[in-house]
Every structure is written in structure tokens, then in C-alpha cells.
Amino acid sequence: MKIDLSFNPAELDELQIRDKNVVVIDVLRSSTTIAVALSNGAREIIPVESIENAVKISGSLFGDVTLRGGERNGKTIHGFNLGNSPLEYTETTVKGKSIIFCTTNGSVAMHRSRFARKLAIGSFINATKVIDFIKDVGADFLLVCAGRANAFGNFSLEDAVCAGMIVYELMREESADLELTDSSRAALALYKTYGRSILKMLKETEHGRYLIEIGFLEDIKLSAQVDSYPVLPVLNGNVIKLLKDEE
Amino acid sequence: MKIDLSFNPAELDELQIRDKNVVVIDVLRSSTTIAVALSNGAREIIPVESIENAVKISGSLFGDVTLRGGERNGKTIHGFNLGNSPLEYTETTVKGKSIIFCTTNGSVAMHRSRFARKLAIGSFINATKVIDFIKDVGADFLLVCAGRANAFGNFSLEDAVCAGMIVYELMREESADLELTDSSRAALALYKTYGRSILKMLKETEHGRYLIEIGFLEDIKLSAQVDSYPVLPVLNGNVIKLLKDEE
Q1: Residue B55 burial by Cβ neighbours in a 10 Å radius (0-12, 13-18, 19+)
Q2: In the CATH scheme, what is the code of domain A2-242?
Q3: A119 phi and psi, to 5 degrees?
Q4: Beta strands of B39-109 (E only): which ranges?
Q5: C-alpha–C-alpha distance, residues B35 and B204, integer Å
Q6: Does residue B35 contact residue B125 with C-beta atoms inside 8 Å?
Q7: Tens-digit pLDDT profile for residues A215-228
Q8: Nearest residue in chain A measured CA to CA from B159
Q9: Has the ipTM of the complex gone over 0.85?
Q10: How do residues B21-44 score in pLDDT, each as one tens digit?
Q11: Chain B contact for A80 (CB, 8 A cutoff)
């Protein structure tokens, strides 16, 4: 069982992804927000790669059951109902709703990975669910770090450390069978270095510091709570829903 | 002084690079081979991004002073004089010669970075020269890991660890002034994890294992010898030459 990893979703070729099992990780904040929204009863999340497409798609859906969520530069997109803060996605706001979701890195990586055989959404708040899912599937996986579009090479430390946590936990139980690549070994080393305090790490990354600067410290605190939202969002067709335990 | 880093040269925009100070790192083996070739008296190295261009350029140069070197899948390109093994670039072979150089990752990253303000070529065998050069310039630098074209996201561990060694040594002396990004912090952590035995690390990376498989273990041993070729190859115009100490 091979665990490969991409630090850089811009490199993903949609055809390369076809028939792979993928986890998309965008800790700050798309993956976290999706786990919270679905935990709080949102019907589904529809990840799109551009504002234009978000507007186009929402035009053909019923207004009373559809919300538009997402961000540019961390802030709510003009004309959207919600930003990308998990704290906005309360039960009152999202229950029963379809959410068209457009973020700078996360929703783009999810959209690019839409032809995957299986696609789960990973973050610290649902890490164990993701790890158990990988074990259940029991096949090769590609961990995709959504990264940071305005960094050279798109690298973001928080996504790498979260991916590394997944590798670490898989290693602990299946060391004999697990084949790692350069990138998944690197993520593992980064988790060992920075994983002792997730909150401290998140506060010190480039994007963490930016989010604090624009007023989202509480989002970072929520994002650091390992397994606090034990759900498994998976893509099916074009929409992300929770995988029910019985499936 | 900010040290940024790209794990992924495919993302580099030539215009983004303009006016930046850059070090291109391709430990296995382009950077290593260039340092050896210039140490052994090669007149200059001309990095090109494609075999087509290598052939085109060499057609207009004098045959007796020009060699073509490079690889595809680690092996000598058909019709080229030399492969990408540093052991081929002996004094007898390269002294006084211009070498048109075409490799899968390294020469492409060098070509893409050709508009940099300053561009040095880094590897373990000339690490301290590169570190001293960065200190001398005393300005922001971008470390470009040439990576591995056929890996997801182009990541290669050996280039990341070498970049991390550079960051580590800069930190030791200039900790107060040094600003790191997510990617340069990650490289630093990878150096701390894997830097204790460079040879062991090189043997265990994906590309290291491949090179051993096709018979290049001696290249890996040479590539692991820190500071064994204390020279500084720099790009000037379109050619790489040694920076003389008096410059």
C-alpha cells in the first residue's frame, strides 16, 4: 500500500488523478469548514474552481435551499452568503442547505481531484475518520495538500503537517506494508517536528499569521482541535456529503 | 533578509524570478555535475531546457570546443558526448570546453531562472561556497529545488534537505535577521531530520534508489561529500561559469 503526496495541487492533472484514491487537505480553512458545515447538517457542499462558476451554478438552483460560501484573500466574496470561517457555518444557517463553495486553494484542489476513484476531505478536526477510511479502503492513496496559491510552489506547512499526521498514524499500525515516497516521507518528518503543538504550529505558519491579522484567531483554534468533528466528507459525483458509517 | 524556497520549479514564472537572487539545487545530479565539470576546467556550461535546443545551439558552435551533456531517465541522450554522471566530467574530457547541458530537472530549473538577478548552482559538494555567497550578497534569496519531474508536485527529498542545510547554516550565524517562509522552515526541519547522514539519505530517496538501480552508486557517493568541490558556479548571461574569489 503506497502513500504518495502532492504539496502542490497546481501540478495535478485531472487525468493523473483518475482512478486514484485521494484525500484533499486544506486545514486553513476549506477542509475544516466543510467538516463543520456537514456536521451541522448542511445537505451538501459543491466545490467550484472559480467565482464565475459559483455564480453560474447557483443561478440554476433554488434560492431558498442554496447558499454561496467562500473567500478571496481570506474574506467573504462580494455577493456570497458566507465566507470561509467554520464559525459561520452554524446549524441555524446551514441545516438542509446546499452550499456552493469557492475558495482560493481548497475548493480548487477538490475540483481538480473530482475524477478520483474515492475522494475524502481531511483536516485535523476529522483526522482519525480519514485515517480509518484509508485503512478500510486498504489501497494506494494520494494525499493532496491544497497549499497556498501565493507562495512559491504553493507549499503550506499546515497542510503538510496534517498529511504527515495521517502518514504517521498509518505507519504505526501497518508499517510492514506501507510504501512511502519522498514527499510522504517529508510530510512524516514535518509532523514529527511540528505535530506536538498543532495550535502553535498553525499560529506560526504564513497563512495562520495572515488569518490572525485579519481577525480569525478563533478559526485557528477550532482548526487545531484534533478529532473534534469526527465526520468523513467524501465527494460523490460533483457534491461533497458525509459518508455514513453504514455505507 | 528573507529566505524563500520552491520545491517545484514547474511553478516558477520567469517574470516572478526577475530581480530575485536564486540558488538552483539539483543534488542528483545536475548541480553536482556542474560543480565537478567547472572544477575540472570546463570553460562554461550552457543549460538548456530541451534536447531540441541543445542540438540547435550546438550546431552553431565550434565542434572541437563544444560538448553536449545530459540525460533522459538518468541515461546519456542519444548523440550526446556525455551523460549526467559527474565522474565522466574529468579534466581530460572537459578542460577548456563549452558544455551544452540538458537534463530532466536541473537544466530546466536553471533555464527558467535565467532572468534572476543572481543565480548560483548549489549542491552538497559546494554547500559552504553557496552559503558564503548568500551571506556576501546579504539580500533576500529564493532557493529552487529542481525536484523530480515524474513525482507528484515534483518534490525530491535530496534537494529539500540540501536547501535545508543552507537555511540551517544561515540561521546559525544570522538568526536575528533571517525571515523564513513555510517552505524554508520545512526544508530546515527536513535537514534536521535527514541531514545526519547525507549518504544514507541520498541512497534512500526515490531518485537515489533509481540511480543505484541503473548503476550510478559512485555518483551518489560523490554527491554526498560535503564541500569536496569548493567552487561557486553562477549564471551570467546564458552561461554558467565559476565565480572567481576576486570578483
Answers
A1: middle
A2: 3.90.1560.10
A3: -135, 115
A4: 44-47, 66-72, 75-76, 98-102
A5: 23
A6: yes
A7: 999 999 999 999 99
A8: A182
A9: yes
A10: 999 999 999 999 999 999 999 999
A11: no
